[in-house]
Amino acid sequence: MIVSGMSRDAFPASRLLKFTTATLDTPHIPLTNLIFSQIQGPDVYSYNLMIRAFSLSCHPLTSLSLYHNLLFQGLHPNEYTLCFLLTCCANAFALREGRQVHVHLIKHGFKHRVFAATSLIHMYGNCQTLPDALQLFEEMPQRSEVTWGAMIDACVAHGELIKGLQLLVEMSCLRVEASNATLVTALCACGEMGDFGLGRMIHAYIEIRGLEHNVTLGTSLVDMYAKCGAIDMAMEVFHAIPEKSAATWNCMIHGLAMNSRAGAALNFFGEMQRMGVRPNAATFVGVLHACSHAGLVRDGIEWFYSMSEKYSLVPNIKHYGCMVDLLSRAGRLEEALEVIRKMPIEPDVVIWGALFGACRIHGNTKLGELVGAQIIKLQPHHTGGYTFLSDMYAMAKRWDNVFEVRGAMMEMDMRKTPGCSFISD
To answer: What pLDDT sits at residue 380?
Structure first.
C-alpha cells in the first residue's frame, strides 16, 4: 500500500486503520497516528476510527483535538463520532467536555437516538452526575437493553443500589431481557445490600432463560450468596461452574472466611493450588482473613511472607491490615504495633482501629492511648476515636481522663451518629 501510494487514499487507508484500531486487543496508537497522518483528506469514517482508538487508550481526551480538526475541515460528524467522543469523556471522567459533546448531539439532531442517549447516560454515570443520567433515561422514547444496563450500572456505581434494583424489576416487567453484564451488576447490588430474596429471583431468572454459568456470571452468583450468608448455596453454584478463574476461587475463599468457615476457606485455598490456579493479591486477603478468624497465627505469618518469597506479590494495605488484625485478636499487641511501624505505606484508620479494639479487649490502656491519639490525628472530627478512648478509660476507672475526653468532645460539639459504629470487623 505504501509503495503503490494507496496508503494516502482515504478509503483503503481507513481499512488499514480499522485493522490497527479494531482487530488488535489494544489499539497501536503510534502506528495508527502514523497511518492517519499520511491520509490526504481523511473522511469521517477515518476520524471515527481514530477517536474510537483513543477512547481505549491512556489519553482519551486527545480525541477532542481530532474532533476539532474534523470540524475545521468542514466535515459533519455522525452519531458514531459523538458517541465515541462521549466514551472518551466517560473514561477520562471529563464532565465539562462531556456536556459540550452533549450540546453537539442536540445540535445535530441525535439526542433522542437510542445509541446516542445510551452513550450520554454512560458518560453522566461515569462522571457521577446521576440526576442528569436519570433525566435522560426518563425522556427517552425508546430504550434498548443496553440503555437499561447503562442506567442500572450508573445507579449501582453511584451507590443508589435500591434504585438500580427497582429498574431491573421494571425492566423485567416490560419483558426486556437483561444482558449478562446487567445481571452481574444487579447481583453485585444484591450482595452489597444483603438482599437474598431478590438475589434468588435473579438466579431463577438466569435458570429460566437457560443462561450458562460462565466465569463472570457464576462468580457474581457465588459472591452474592456468600455476602448474603447463604454459603452452602454459594458452594453449590461454585461447583456448577465449568471453568473457574482466580476470581471465582477468591470469592469462595472470602465467602467462607466471612461466614465463620475458616477451615473450609483454607481447604479451598489448598485445592486452588492443586488445580494449578495461581493465587493473586486478593486471594491472600481472604486467606489471611480466614487465619485471623481461626486464630492460626503461625499459618497466617507464613502465608504473609510467602506472598513475596514464593509468588512475587507485594503486600498492600489490606494484607497489612489482616496481619494487624490476626496478631491483635491473638493478644500479641506489641507484635501488631511492630508490623504497623515497619509498613512501607502509611497505616490508615482501619488498621489503627483493629489494634485499638484489641487494646480495649485486652485492657492495654497504655498502648490504647497511643493508638487512640493516632486515630484522632487521622480523623480529628470523627466521634469514634474519642468515644472508644473514653470507654477504655472508663474500663480502667480513670475517670479524670474520661471527663477530659468527654470535655474535648463537647468543646468540638461532637455527637455520635445514632446507630453507627466506628470500627467494623
So the answer is: 63
Residue the block writes with cell 453454584? 237
What is the total residue count of the chain?
425
Ordered DSSP codes for 32-90: HHHHHHH-SS--HHHHHHHHHHHHTSS-GGGHHHHHHHHHHTT----HHHHHHHHHHHH
pLDDT tens profile 241-280: 998 999 999 999 999 999 989 999 999 999 999 999 999 9
Report the range of poorest mean pLDDT among 47-51, 107-111, 172-176, 408-412.
408-412
pLDDT digits (tens, 9 = 90+) for 300-320: 999 999 999 999 999 999 999
The helix-helix angle for 145-157 and 114-126 (nearest 10°) equals 10
Q: Taking the chain, what is the end-to-end CA distance rounded to the nearest angstrom?
A: 64
Cα 225 to Cα 235, 254, 425, distances in angstroms: 9, 12, 19
Kindly list the structural domains of the chain, giving each domain's residue range(s) and its CATH number in brackets, ordered by start.
Answer: 1-142 (1.25.40.10), 346-425 (1.25.40)
DSSP-derived secondary structure letter, 24: S
Q: Grid cell 481505549 — which residue?
A: 56
Nearest CA-CA partner of 300 in 284, 281, 279, 280: 284
